[in-house]
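> Could you send the DUF4252 domain-containing protein prediction when you get a chance?

Sure thing. Input:
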Amino acid sequence: MKTGFSGFIIRSFAAVLAALVLSAPATDAKRKEKATCRAAVMSVIQKYDGCDGVETVNIGPFFLGIAKMAAGDEEGSEFLRYVDRMAVFSAEDATQELRSAVSEDLSSALAGYEKGIEVTDEDEQMAIYFRRHDDSVKEMVIYSIPDMAVIVMHGNFPVSELEKIATDAAQEY
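Output:
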């Protein structure tokens, strides 16, 4: 059994996935509103890519395919099979002025997403946002606020499979 912050994060992630399963599907009005923000977080990442103190990594389908093959039966590999594209962004080393601008833009972009959970533990603060359509999560955003770090995962994550992964993770940790 894992303890500490990583175990706390995994248990929290499991709770988010369970909440996804139990929540009602979005109304048509909500779906239309969310369709307009589909690229919102990626737009923020692209806007600040190349700025001093900002690091960005975009992983497309080809390299994710290689990662899926390499992962085999490793822990977490069952989740990886649903990811089509991934981006990792960090403005941790940016100036305070740039960090404030990024934070403001991310807050605006994330307004169109559903917040699954917000976790605070000592000096750590993290939130998981998602965008879903019918019985699938199409985009998941993990935002570490003090680190000014974002992970965006695009794909087709069936809610039923996420529930199973969450249940297995909660039992393990």
